[in-house]
Amino acid sequence: MNQRCFPLPEASITEPDNHPVRHWLERHPDLSVGLSALQQTALARLVPLLLCGEQSAIHVFHTEYSRREDSQFYLAQIEADERLHEIALQRLLQQVPEYENLHRLKRQAQLFYARIQQASDSVARHFYTISQLDACVCVLMNAVANSSIKGTAAAGLFSLIKRDEARHVSIARRHALRLQQDIYEQPPLDFCIHQGLVSLLQQQTAAFEMLGIDADALFQRLVQMAPVSGSAIKGAA
After folding, report:
1. What is the tens place of the pLDDT at every residue in 52-64?
2. DSSP codes joined into one string, 79-142
3. Which of 31, 60, 123, 159 has a CA between 20 and 30 Å from the CA of residue 175?
């Protein structure tokens, strides 16, 4: 059964045949191999949150690619990446036991991702925020890939997704800057994406600990990633 927070739009382009995530899925049809029952339980709680983020990202990049008259093709390429991530995480989720509070978990994730769009006062601001979120996703993916599941097919998948997301951070930042040259000088939004993300993740603290991840240290790092000023982000772009 597909777990969708958001219905997906028709793809702008076909996902590339030579994509590393596609190859990984071909090599590892069962992503649950090597995972203990406890690790599967933990992933059943964490993967839906990541999956919801991938579906939200598909919408963001698809909408922007469709909106742009100058057809920034890199937007469609990111959308294709996110679609493969979504397919891969769907497969993993189908291969672990279903979380009993999945509906509630999805609803919480939906509200978080919807809040990001609602809080953005421009398309540029939205992409600026997305770049910050993608940077946090890289940290999350890295933490899970190097947790107690390290060495499994699932861990390899998280590493590949993290690599894509790191590239997306840079592209989203550059796109925000193209849309609005002074985007880094804008006052912060009322909604802090880093604190909002941590609040969402804190409800699954036990799942992180099942994987041997120091949840408090992880959450503290995510909060510390929030820029203290526009110039801090500008320097990282």
Report:
1. 989 988 988 888 8
2. HHHHHHHHHHHHHHHHTSPPPTTHHHHHHHHHHHHHHHHHH-SSHHHHHHHHHHHHHHHHHHHH
3. 159
